[in-house]
Inverse folding.
């Protein structure tokens, strides 16, 4: 019996596709093979490795970014699909320093190994933009696609609650 | 007005008396995580985020079965793929095949004619792009013949079973011709005599599944050949110095030619302790003379690390009033195809198979059984969760027979501080007031208060031995302006070690917290640390850092005396200050004065060494024990078997909380990880030894929605640990007995006792069905 | 090398699909397609992105007679649409179980049907609510009920060169209602072990859509009235409704467990749907 390992079929890098997209407010043009995901494009071509790769099948949420303002798993979006669209990564949530949400993640003790945190922060930011005063059940629901193996879940919920409270005071 | 972090833990503080050994200092305060800003902003660089221009990408070639002879490998087509630089098989490596391992030198750099588990690489492709490497890996033809591999304990222990390990790897060993790699035996007391005075005997068998670490960072390795013929290796490894030694050994290089850079692991949990694929990457880099990079997929990570499964047959006796009389345990640990550290997991886990109890007669026989599966390795809890599941369930079974409840039977058997719970030659005694944790957990769960129908409660305790030997060395530099740099080799994988070093140095040298930086993760610049494991770092490296600070203070004192002419005997150094005849001087000021116009710095060195005991089965007495009491309240849907955890309380005996915010994070995290193996996690194999639920779609870990409705983490602080300021390690406690507490709660709620983990909805449903059918 | 097309017209999309034949797939959310490609469960190498097509049916059109949904309408849009929530509550309940928020922001309702997973969460309520699909190709359009559309695991009436351009949901009759129930291995995001949607009609008849208990999503019905206050009559109805289920044993659950819980969930869904009926509109 003979077998071979399972790997993608796409053999060569010829025929790269040029993609122009807006990342964190700046227009960027990259050349990628068509099978390359937005996650790959952001990390390898745009040079923004803050967005993380784990399961590569939309189950863990580590690669969450905002696409035209909506949270998506960037591992399940082809880079070519992002042509002409706006992408916000964790690096683009703030022009300078940490956002209030990121500060509250620290304050709540929500950050342990940190690998899932960029995805958590982006998902939580999306939640707060679409539902500024979420209750605990809504927070858990909204973030249930973001796995944290350090399991800082309860700390993250507190961070989102604290941010919502801060924002409502403004 | 409280600060935000204080708000975050005020619920916890309300639970007990917060203690503050340094009322004015940083230790004991919820100081924010060192490096936390980078971790939230996306600036933190994990190994896959590092850029190596011009590096080659590596893809692994495997065969789709768990056990096979490799008859031939045809790399012709793979070599023809554009961009491929090299395709390496066992034939391209030194002969005999270099092997490595922590407890046995049994693991080959590449499969050597025989595949021993699904996912074991038989070849590696090196190419200019990842696409080319993966395409070429797909084009490698591996002619192989599947063998009747052993994938379960019964398979492996059957007469005539396929032998996982070549007997020649254990020449002369009594067990060389079996799949039992090692055994451990502990016994004390007279079991027959104890049984004679026993009222109730409970005899049952329990199983604990194979589970995988599932770090969110899958990990990877980059090997860079240096101009001097050595290597720089980047790996998110928990033990950089062990990796350095292993690589030097298989490559035949001196230690100074192997420099390990260890970017912070994105979650380790034990899975990133020991070398796995790094030696292969090292050979590839030396062979190609190019930088070689391998970033693992999550599936490959599943095939690289897991916890040993376990089957435990237990026979336990109780007197009429619930006192334990004897406990007889046979524990078979289902380890994998290579030893890794699994024999030690078996030996150390089974050492506490009789738990923190007063049991006059004990016999423990444990075996590490090899199978054709992913090599099992260290995983938070290190063998204790497996044996605890059986023991705690046995206590509840005894309690039910005797009409006692889960709290009462533990009250009657739990040892007091100083009392032995392991007897015989290698005895061990309680090093904490463990009853306090039990009582606190009972109080916080509302033990004994009425519950609505369909709900139940369970309570359990667990212990785990800390490190039994160790060596941590640290350097602290106090710079001329009063800022400081700590060199400490502990890997910061989320537990927050660097934050503690910052807190300690701030207090001990009087430096502002934000002017203390920490250097780690580089064997070329940071002194030796044996390992980051067994929740040891607070105790071991913490003590080394503390000692280095004292060394700095003594040097400041000496130089201050020399440069000012004040006799040294009129000076005294204390944390943060130099006491002079004129009064207390902040240490940075004293240092400035001492250094004078030439400036310079003070360099302090600290070492914490715990020598093992040659005769001790664990290699020495544990530096401390982690103790935890967990109580769970659960609601059971009798028609579907679904569980709703309404309240989960964890209380750990922590000695002193050096940073309460980090203690809460670790404790809650361990509790939820414990719920993973208790409720949903298990690696399922097919008849070819392949993982059926390989990946995130069907291997389930807890999510936000799986966190109990209420999760309460509390601590008992008696300042009785061996670490700085009376601290102990705390990172594993809350998962040691999660399963026992949950199992007892389900039994209380639904009237069914389940002895196999995880307690999936289907298992609970099936047990309820069986119970109803039996009525 | 994967070919990627982003046509702007329906005609161009159909041309690209026709030329790609069996190797071509329409792409909307990609949340199933990209996973399939990564694992080589799917070998398509011509992807036709529909998100730039300007002359496809509108994402959603509500009329007095029902709702028309276009191929690019996402789960995220669906779950917050007030009319969908009022008319097809089981569909919203089901859509809310599809993956995570980020998945739902991308995944399309039509794509979930076209992927034809036996465990597709939205299939049971769509079956209960009598969904029909329009299948288009260069040769023209044809329509089919969703029940006819599902052929088997990952197989539908939609063949090479074809595209589902529209999904129609009739407006529920007054006095009817629906509900959805699902069983998973954990509470957070998970694939269904069993899923079921139930509808109670104006006459008290029952219709059930089932997921993960057969090679394709299943639909059955019993005429009304069924006396839901009488255990024996409800049990008889369940016997009749659930007899078609042929679940298998896999990593998510055993056949036996699926059969037992299918019955439990169906009963719960039926009673929940009945509770939702407006008594003023009931025919019986």
């Amino acid at each position: 019996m003979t077998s071979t390992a399972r790997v993608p079929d796409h053999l060569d890098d010829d025929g790269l596709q040029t993609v122009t997209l807006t990342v964190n407010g700046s227009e960027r043009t990259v050349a990628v093979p068509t099978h390359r995901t937005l996650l790959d494009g952001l990390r390898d071509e745009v040079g923004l490795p803050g967005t993380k790769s784990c399961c590569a099948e939309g189950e863990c949420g580590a690669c969450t970014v905002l696409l035209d303002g909506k949270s998506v798993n960037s591992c399940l979006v082809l880079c070519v699909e992002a042509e002409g669209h706006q992408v916000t990564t964790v690096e683009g949530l703030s022009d300078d320093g940490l956002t209030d949400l990121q500060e509250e993640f620290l304050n709540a003790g929500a950050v342990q190994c940190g690998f899932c945190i960029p995805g958590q922060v982006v998902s939580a930011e999306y939640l707060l933009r679409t539902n500024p005063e979420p209750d605990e059940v809504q927070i858990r629901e909204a973030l249930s696609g973001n796995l944290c193996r350090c399991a800082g879940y309860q700390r993250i919920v507190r961070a989102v609650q604290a941010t919502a409270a801060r924002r409502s005071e403004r | 007005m409280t600060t935000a972090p204080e708000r975050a833990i005020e619920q916890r503080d309300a639970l007990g008396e917060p203690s503050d050994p340094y009322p004015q200092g940083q230790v004991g305060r919820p100081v924010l995580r060192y490096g936390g800003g980078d971790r939230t902003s996306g600036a933190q660089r994990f190994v896959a985020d590092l850029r190596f221009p011009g590096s080659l990408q590596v893809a692994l070639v495997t065969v789709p079965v768990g056990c096979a002879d490799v008859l031939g490998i045809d790399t012709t087509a793979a070599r023809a793929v554009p961009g491929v630089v090299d395709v390496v098989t066992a034939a391209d490596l030194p002969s005999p095949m270099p092997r490595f391992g922590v407890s046995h030198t049994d693991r080959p750099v590449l499969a050597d004619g025989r595949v021993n588990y699904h996912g074991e690489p038989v070849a590696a492709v090196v190419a200019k792009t990842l696409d080319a490497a993966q395409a070429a890996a797909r084009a490698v033809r591996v002619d192989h013949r599947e063998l009747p591999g052993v994938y379960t304990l019964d398979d492996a222990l059957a007469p005539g079973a396929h032998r996982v390990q070549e007997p020649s790897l254990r020449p002369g060993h009594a067990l060389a011709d079996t799949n039992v790699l090692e055994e451990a035996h502990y016994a004390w007391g007279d079991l027959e005599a104890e049984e004679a005075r026993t009222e109730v005997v409970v005899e049952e068998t329990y199983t604990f599944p194979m589970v995988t670490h599932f770090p969110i960072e899958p990990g990877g390795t980059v090997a860079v050949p240096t101009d001097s013929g050595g290597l720089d290796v980047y790996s998110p490894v928990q033990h950089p110095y062990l990796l350095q030694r292993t690589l030097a050994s298989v490559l035949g290089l001196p230690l100074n030619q192997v420099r390990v850079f260890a970017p912070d692991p994105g979650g380790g949990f034990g899975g990133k302790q020991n070398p796995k694929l790094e030696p292969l990457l090292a050979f590839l880099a030396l062979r190609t003379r190019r930088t070689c990079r391998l970033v693992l997929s999550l599936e490959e990570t599943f095939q690289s690390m897991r916890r040993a499964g376990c089957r435990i047959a237990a026979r336990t006796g109780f007197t009429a009033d619930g006192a334990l009389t004897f406990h007889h345990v046979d524990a078979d640990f289902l380890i994998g195809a290579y030893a890794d550290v699994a024999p030690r997991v078996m030996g150390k886990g089974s050492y506490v198979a009789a738990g923190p109890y007063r049991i006059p007669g004990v016999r423990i026989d444990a075996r590490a059984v090899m199978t054709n599966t992913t090599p099992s390795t260290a995983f938070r809890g290190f063998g204790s969760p497996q044996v605890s599941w059986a023991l705690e369930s046995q206590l509840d079974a005894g309690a039910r027979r005797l009409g006692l409840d889960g709290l009462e039977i533990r009250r009657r058997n739990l040892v007091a501080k100083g009392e032995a719970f392991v007897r015989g030659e290698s005895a061990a005694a309680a090093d904490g007031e463990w009853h306090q944790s039990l009582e606190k957990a009972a109080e916080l769960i509302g033990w004994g208060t009425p519950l609505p129908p369909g709900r139940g409660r369970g309570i359990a305790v667990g212990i785990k031995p800390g490190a039994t030997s160790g060596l941590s060395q640290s350097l602290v530099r106090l710079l001329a302006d009063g800022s400081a740099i700590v060199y400490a080799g502990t890997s910061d994988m989320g537990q927050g070690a660097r934050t503690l070093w910052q807190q300690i140095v701030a207090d001990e040298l009087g430096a502002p917290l934000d002017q203390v930086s920490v250097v780690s993760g580089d064997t070329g610049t940071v002194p030796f640390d044996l390992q980051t494991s067994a929740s040891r770092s607070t105790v071991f490296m913490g003590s080394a850092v503390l000692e280095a600070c004292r060394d700095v203070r003594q040097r400041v004192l000496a130089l201050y005396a020399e440069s000012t002419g004040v006799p040294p005997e009129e000076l005294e150094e204390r944390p943060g200050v130099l006491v002079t005849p004129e009064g207390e001087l902040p240490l940075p000021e004293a240092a400035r004065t001492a250094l004078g116009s030439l400036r310079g710095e003070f360099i302090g060195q600290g070492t914490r060494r715990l020598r093992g005991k040659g005769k001790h089965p664990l290699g020495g007495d544990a530096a401390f024990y982690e103790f935890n009491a967990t109580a769970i309240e659960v609601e059971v849907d009798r028609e579907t078997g679904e569980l709703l955890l309404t309240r989960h309380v964890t209380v750990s005996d922590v000695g002193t909380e050096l940073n309460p915010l980090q203690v809460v994070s670790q404790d809650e995290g361990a509790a939820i990880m414990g719920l993973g193996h208790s409720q949903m996690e298990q690696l399922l194999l097919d008849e070819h030894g392949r993982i059926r639920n390989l990946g995130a779609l069907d291997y389930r870990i807890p999510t936000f929605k799986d966190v109990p409705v209420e999760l309460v983490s509390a601590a008992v602080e008696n300042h009785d640990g061996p670490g700085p300021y009376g601290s102990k390690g705390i990172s594993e406690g809350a998962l040691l007995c999660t399963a026992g507490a949950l199992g007892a709660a389900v039994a209380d709620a639904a009237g069914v006792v389940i002895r196999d983990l995880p307690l999936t909805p289907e298992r609970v449903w099936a047990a309820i069905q069986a119970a109803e059918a039996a009525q | 090398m994967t070919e990627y097309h982003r046509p702007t017209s329906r005609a161009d999309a159909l041309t690209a699909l026709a030329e790609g034949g069996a190797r071509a797939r329409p792409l909307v959310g990609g949340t199933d397609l990209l996973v399939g490609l990564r694992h080589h469960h799917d070998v398509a190498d011509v992807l036709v992105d529909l998100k730039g097509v300007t002359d496809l049916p509108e994402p959603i059109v509500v009329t007095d007679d029902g709702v028309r949904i276009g191929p690019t309408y996402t789960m995220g849009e669906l779950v917050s649409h007030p009319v969908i929530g009022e008319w097809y509550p089981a569909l919203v309940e089901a859509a809310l179980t599809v993956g995570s928020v980020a998945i739902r922001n991308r995944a399309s309702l039509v794509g979930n049907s076209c992927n034809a997973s036996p465990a597709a969460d939205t299939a049971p309520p769509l079956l209960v609510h009598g969904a029909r699909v329009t299948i288009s190709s260069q040769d023209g359009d044809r329509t089919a009920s969703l029940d006819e559309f599902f052929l088997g695991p990952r197989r539908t009436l939609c063949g090479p060169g074809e595209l589902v351009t529209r999904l129609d949901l009739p407006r529920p009759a007054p006095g009817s209602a629906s509900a959805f129930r699902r069983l998973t291995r954990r509470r957070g995001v998970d694939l269904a072990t069993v899923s079921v949607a139930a509808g109670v009609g104006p006459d008290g008849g029952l219709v059930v859509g089932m997921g993960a208990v057969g090679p394709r999503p299943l639909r059955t019905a019993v005429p009304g009235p069924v006396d839901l206050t009488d255990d024996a009559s409800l049990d008889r109805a369940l016997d009749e409704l659930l007899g078609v289920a042929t679940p298998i044993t896999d990593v998510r659950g055993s056949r036996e467990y699926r059969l037992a819980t299918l019955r439990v969930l169906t009963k719960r869904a039926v009673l929940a749907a009945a509770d939702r009926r407006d008594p003023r509109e009931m025919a019986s």
